[in-house]
Amino acid sequence: MAVPSHARGYDDFAGTAGRTTADSTPDWLYPPTAPAGAPNIVVVLVDDMGFSDIAPFGSEIDTPTLSRLAAAGLRLTNFHTTPLCSPSRAALLTGVNSHRAGFGFVANADPGYPGLRLELADDVLTLPEILRANGYATYAVGKWHLVRDATLHPAAPRDSWPTHRGFDRYYGSLEGLNSFYHPNQLVSDSSPVNIEEYPEGYYLTDDYTDRAISYLKDLRAHDATKPFFLYFAHTAMHGPLQAKPDDQAKYQGRYQEGWDRLRQTRFAAQLAQGLFPEGTQQKPRNTEPGYEAQEWDSLTPEQQSRFERYMEVYAGMVDSIDQSLGRIVETLEQFGELDNTIIVFTSDNGGTAEGGPEGTRTYFAQFAQVDEPDFERDVPHDDELIGTAKLGVHYPRGWGQASNTPFRFYKGQTFAGGVRVPFVLSWPKGLPRNGSDDGVRQEYVYITDLTPTLLELAGLQIPTVRNGLPAKDFDGVSAVEVLRDTAAVSEHVEQYSEMTGHRGFYRDGWKLLALYEPERGIDNPRWQLFDVRTDPTELHDLSEQLPDKVAELAAAWDEAAWHNTVFPLVTRQDLARRRPEESRFADPVRILPGTPTLERYRSQRLIAYRDFTITVTLAGYRRGDEGVLVAHGDTLGGYHLYAEHGHLIFGYNGYGNYATVDAGEIPDGATTLTVTATVRPHLRWDFTITIDAHDPTHLTDQVQLVGMSPWTGISVGLDARGPVSWQLHDRHGVYRYTGDLRAVEYRPGTIGVSEDDQRALDSEAELIAE
Asked: What positions carry a catalytic annotation?
């Protein structure tokens, strides 16, 4: 019988519906399936790794897995990315230029302009969304960094979180950096993981790898044929640098030669491997003011000894990443699927100079612009602790220069050192090498090309709609022909770049580049011109000889900037601008025992640049009660209030300088403990501690924790995750309070920033942007 005209719900039913199943025929809806033989896809994205840090690109570091993949696969030596992490991640996952995707800078603030929304828009498709719609399982592990600070907390909208942008499962850190021993927050799928204490031997890279392999094994136990996409975005090599003891020990004594000779050695290896055309030159070292690297032989023996340790740690971290990839490859071999898996390995940008000329043992102190001669940006510590959980370190920029061999400059700049990174691709079944192909490709390929390239290799079409909205078209182009044919010419013929005032434009082998110079203003670049076909290391500026070419490419940059929502150009101070609604993060809060660690940004806003009062309420102190009452921060900077041996102690970790004050014996029955912070000039705090409002005790003239510090949020009743004081942690661990703690209340006061302090904060914004 026919379905009556007034019936509802049968329009899309392909079977027949009668009054009973006896006179009906069933039909089933099926999820999309991938094309037969569709390859698995694994994209491994590392953080802040320079061009020369793996063996297939000239390194001495032991990376056997990458060497194996490169030996059978392809190396792209002219692969370009953006100069910073979030923009590169957005471009990679969307195929859309970073500003047009909303990521003209790192995803933390929101200056309020189209190219700087710093979250993925509704009309931007992602690679995992496309793959999932075509029958792929999609997994993300590791660093995300595509959400603003204001949407990191568990009550925030999750529109830009991984599982809302195409991934079936996610495990990792939404942040841009983290501790490798005590991450401040991890997320599983769409929920923060409530971790109080990390187990002995915990290491973030291993945790990521364990979870990735678990996802893949779980899939294969339930579906033997469904292809998968694994996006493995390492937090390494981003600072603070920390390596497992065995990995660090493997490179002990290896870097006594220093960065100048290492740079020469790596460049010679690159030339021997055929990574650059004959005649390519290398500048001995960066000499531009603010970017210069010291001559290694000019350093004191003490400096050399300490600086070597930084690089030993870094090498151990690179080694660890290769070990991680080796475990993924081993898993694929166990499945019998290595030959039909596309594996891509690359970095989000070049090596960094953020450690400054001499490196640091106190990571966040580098960004605190306290204008005082006695402020220590590198608080002395035992060099044996470098690379361990007890310090947050970063190497001197001389090692960053070596990382970027043979290029100039670093992460953050549009010159090659910031944007040319290693790229290895392996797909034995689909891209086999013949005997005459050495696997080296020197054609220009940009990071937006990766998504259209992978889709073409997988035989998938590019959608034009996302959630009913017309989707932004790709800016990237497929590089499949370049991969398949040694004689193919790249179809990506021009590309703009812009980051914090640094600019660049590529067209048909020409590069126009400019460093941002604050004294010239944000829109007055001093252009340099390079023919990168004959000068890939950008050493010979042709701008004076070819002014017409400069004018042509400068006009093209301007047009591309308007076409990609680069304008308005935003000063570095404006990059820290927040939405007005974020003022609510400084509203008072009452935290009850058992509340998971408060998220970092919410915690920071309660104290940033302002007076504040912490009130701890007890049911009544009893002799013998002890433990941490409240803690905020970790080894990189923070403070805590705790009871030990009947006394109330306030401890303050000012970027590695730890001070305590004993507020005296806690009387039986005490109910109210307070810490009051008062802002003082030069970004300092004075602290007053009282017990039941009696007999105040003071800790004065402590440098404020600003910028991204304290890194770990507020915990009540214990010092969770990373400890504020290792001395206390070594005695008691997380030191749970044993008494009856009722609540901890934060009451933020007024912001107190003088004109001098504001100038320091502007300088801090400059440094963080750089």
From this structure: 85, 145
